[in-house]
Design brief:
single chain, 400 residues, mainly alpha, 14 helices, 75% helix
Length: 400
């Protein structure tokens, strides 16, 4: 009996082995340039992680230099970097990041973006030359990857847009060596050259896969919202290490509530309705929506999150004392107004609550700026009311 069982096992093993050996071997081409479809790949999520560091650096610049000049020194580099970072979101709609060469080039771009992030505090100074040089390297890598796309229209489109991308980097490279006014002019000109370039090229030819595109930007925004969570830990740090007490635990809870409110406002089935509206659009309108609703509106939402993160750090640092009057309220208002515009363009949900919330956030936060806990509580109430109303009144995804 034992011998019979052993023979049966051996025969089964040999049968499976023969079946396996007879199967055709599928080898992925070295360059796989099929357009993206379906879910966002792990490679893209891994690539997006480097953007968190850039956002963190920008937040630190804003915190370290409160006032208009500090705000511009943080946000202008952020606006320039976002242009190329979002361009990689467009790229992976045309080029699958599955082949080895594509992945290696993406990792080189990650290195360049990380160097850009390191040099954000010095972007306006001559010693910060690594910022524009790394930026120009990103432009070249992005163009090389796009030229592998299987769609000829995508290859033609990137050749039309690359000169503008390169011009933006060159303006940033020259800016630190000019007088102060000339330097500011170069930064503003770089932003205009980059963000007006699609309009000059009439945004045509780029491949847009609706579900992939919406999910990629939603997950990227989720990563950025994570910066507001990181801000809680930064705010909890003090000059002298100390254990968590009741006051700090309360401040942490309020900070998490603010971050949760941002998440809930954006992610309560909003991306499902947005993808459906995006898919129904014509090809030209889809490209326009990709530019205005995703590259544009998401940039403004990210700026709002950066201001909120700076406000959370400041509020937890000064939980019982005076805090910056503008960061939390203005950040929330900017985020809500941009999300309202995003919804309006895609017809993906209610906008009235967000507009009212944006109007109310600033005066409420200013009135509550006498203490960090009060300012965060005011923002939590605004976001909670919007999220609750939206959750109760929004159509279900099946009806969208």
């Amino acid at each position: 009996m034992a011998t019979s069982k052993k023979l049966t096992v051996v025969r089964s093993f040999r049968w499976c082995q023969n079946r396996t050996m007879n199967l055709p071997v599928v080898r992925r081409p070295l360059w796989d340039t099929e357009s993206a479809s379906g879910r966002v790949t792990p490679v893209e999520l891994f690539f997006d992680l480097v953007f968190v560091f850039v956002v963190t650096q920008v937040t630190h610049v804003v915190e370290a230099h409160p006032g208009w000049e500090g705000l511009l020194r943080g946000l202008l580099p952020m606006v320039v970097v976002w242009w190329m970072f979002s361009a990689f979101g467009w790229l992976t709609n045309a080029v699958r990041p599955d082949s080895v060469p594509v992945r290696l080039l993406l990792m080189l771009a990650m290195i360049a973006f990380f160097i850009i992030g390191l040099d954000v505090p010095y972007a306006f100074d001559p010693q910060g030359f690594a910022f524009p040089l790394a930026y120009l390297a990103v432009v070249v890598i992005h163009c090389l990857l796009y030229l592998t796309a299987s769609a000829p229209s995508s290859r033609r489109a990137i050749l039309r847009n690359m000169p503008f991308n390169g011009a933006g980097g060159l303006l940033v490279l020259v800016a630190p060596y000019l007088p102060e006014v000339g330097g500011w002019f170069c930064w503003v000109a770089a932003v205009l050259v980059l963000y007006l370039s699609p309009l000059l090229g009439r945004i045509r030819g780029f491949v847009i896969e609706p579900h992939h595109f919406v999910e990629r930007h939603a997950l990227l925004l989720l990563i950025v919202v994570g910066e507001s969570v990181v801000a809680i830990g930064i705010g909890a740090e003090s000059s002298e290490p100390r254990a968590v007490d009741a006051a700090l635990a309360f401040g942490v809870a309020l900070g998490i509530a603010v971050a949760s409110g941002l998440w809930w406002v954006y992610f309560d089935d909003d991306e499902v309705r947005a993808a459906a509206a995006f898919e129904q659009a014509t090809e030209h309108r889809r490209q326009m929506l990709a530019y205005y609703a995703f590259t544009g509106a998401h940039l403004v939402m990210i700026i709002g999150v950066i201001l909120i993160a700076a406000g959370i750090t400041d509020a937890i640092h000064h939980l019982g004392g005076q805090v910056n009057r503008w960061w939390l309220g203005c950040g929330t208002a900017v985020f809500l107004a941009a999300h309202a515009a995003y919804r309006a363009m895609l017809h993906s949900g209610r906008i009235r609550d967000r507009v009212i919330g944006a109007v109310c956030a600033v005066p409420l936060a200013v009135a509550a700026s006498f203490a960090g806990w009060a300012a965060m509580t005011a923002i939590v109430l605004v976001l909670a009311v919007i999220a609750t109303i939206d959750h109760l009144l929004a159509p279900q995804p099946a009806d969208a």
